[in-house]
Amino acid sequence: MINLLIGGGVGSGKSSTLHTIIAAAAIDKDRPPLVLIDGKGGVELGLWEAVAHGGVRRTPAEAVTALTWVKGQMDSRYDSMRALGVRKLGRMHDIPPLLVGIDELATFTMGRDRKRRDTFIGLLHDVASRGRAAAIRIVATTQKPGTDVVPSHVRDLFDTRWAFRVSTRDASDTILGAGMSAAGYSAAKLPAYPGAGLLLAGGEPPVRTLSHYLGTKDLERLAAYAAALRNRQIGGS
Ligand SMILES: Nc1ncnc2c1ncn2[C@@H]1O[C@H](COP(=O)(O)OP(=O)(O)OP(=O)(O)O)[C@@H](O)[C@H]1O
């Protein structure tokens, strides 16, 4: 299980990449629960409404409600792990992986209501740090990956970072880590087309990537298909 932070400039392909990850999870045979939080007020992730647990969450208050639910799931998964005598959940334990997808983290980490913002960050920290063993992963996008948006203690919990094109070496380093530009890995040097990225994972040097792209019509078709699959499985509820 990984926690993935996708950073990049405007129009660099972050949300499109998040959609492809959600699409795969939405039609996954184990029907993993999807918790979707949209910092763009539903404009981006709204098409997944029918398959998102409790619908797509759009406001900071809803984001806190959603993460509180995820934390509850995580706690009960830990109970199951204790009962099973395992330190980690895998597919063999019949508990599907849970995906938390967050588009534009800054909406929630920089919101005006300080108390709510701190609650959100606290929950995010807890889920990112303890969720991995319980087959819960977070995939989040951010235009500004600096410490004001994602506090470093939270950012460090994202073991996998995906940098799309940014305008400066510093911005690239805030996603991939200090010294990466100097070592030859700068997202400021990526070609200027959306979907081109540098992926840092597993302690290896970053690798160049080019994301596949699904257009809105195809995503809508996939969302409808996923909703039908899931309704069949849970008896049309
Ligand atoms: N992998 C890709 N291949 C080809 N075109 C792409 C790809 N990813 C994105 N695009 C195009 O670029 C546009 C912007 O992509 P996207 O919305 O994913 O960017 P973003 O980084 O999330 O932008 P923002 O910061 O404004 O949210 C898409 O509408 C699409 O036209």
TrEMBL record:
Keyword ATP-binding: yes
InterPro entries found in the cross-reference section: FtsK/SpoIIIE/SftA, FtsK_dom, P-loop_NTPase
A Pfam family of this chain: FtsK_SpoIIIE
TM region(s), chain numbering: none
Positions with a binding annotation for ATP: 8-15
Gene3D superfamilies tied to this protein: P-loop containing nucleotide triphosphate hydrolases
Keyword terms: ATP-binding, Nucleotide-binding
Domain FtsK: 1-173
Name listed for the protein in its UniProt record: FtsK/SpoIIIE domain-containing protein
Species name: Streptosporangium jomthongense
